[in-house]
Amino acid sequence: MGVPQTRHRVFFIAVKNNIDFNLEYLNMGFNYQPITYGEIRDYKGRKCCENSKTYLLLNEAKNGESDLSAAHERLFGKISFFQNRILYNNQIVSTIRAKSNDFWALDTKIGMSSTEIISAQTFPQDYDFITSTYSNVSYICGMSVPPIMIKRIVTRLIESGLFDYKLKQRSVN
Predict the structure, then answer these.
(1) DSSP label of 65
(2) DSSP notation for 108-171
(3) Cβ-based neighbours of 100, under 8 Å, separated by 6 or more
(4) Residue range 23-162 in CATH 3.90.120
(5) How much is the average pLDDT of 75-79?
C-alpha cells in the first residue's frame, strides 16, 4: 500500500442492506512500489551500548537474519530476542509496534530514530505528539494504522461511488 512496513492488514468494508451498492465495484488492489528502510533512514538513532547483550548479539548476527534470535541461540543455546528486529537498507521495515526501541541497523548498530519511526508509519513530520519523547512517538505510531493507508482506502471508497448511493426502494408486503 505504499507504506514502508511489511505488516499485513485486513480491512472489513460493509454496506447496509438498504444501500444500492455492489461491493464488487470496489477496487482494493494496492500495487505501490515498496518503500525500503534505506529510503527513510536518517542515521540519527541511538547507538547500541557496547557492553550490552544486544551489542554482543548484533556482532554475532549474520547478514540476512531478520531478528536476533538465531544469534542468541548460537551464543547461549536458547531462542530469545526474537522481538529485536534487524533493519537492512534494501528491505521494508517490519511492523512498527508500540515499543519500537528494539529495531537495529546491523551495519551501524544504531536503533531507529523517532524520525524514521514517523516516516515508516507515514505520519507527517510536523505531527504534534504532545511530547516528542522517543517512547511516546513509538507508542502512538505503533498503536496507529498508518495515515497514508487510511487515506488510500477512503480514496478508493470515494472513487467507487459508494458515497453517491441511493437507498433501495422498500418493498411493500
Answers:
(1) -
(2) TTEEPPHHHHHHHTT--TT---SS--HHHHHHHHHTS--HHHHHHHHHHHHHTTGGG--BPPPP
(3) 112, 117, 138, 141, 142
(4) yes
(5) 97
> What is the per-residue pLDDT across 99-138, written as a single tens digit (0 to 9) for each?
778 999 999 999 999 999 999 999 999 999 999 899 999 9
Please answer whether residues 164 and 20 qualify as being in contact, where contact means their C-beta atoms are separated by less than 8 angstroms: no
* Angle in degrees, 0-180, between the axes of helices 69-76 and 53-60, rounded to the nearest 10: 100
pTM of the shown model: 0.84
Burial of 23 (0-12, 13-18, 19+ CB in 10 A): exposed
So where are the chain's domains? Answer: 23-162
pLDDT digits (tens, 9 = 90+) for 23-54: 888 888 888 888 999 999 999 999 999 999 99
Sign of CA dihedral 126, 84, 39, 150: negative
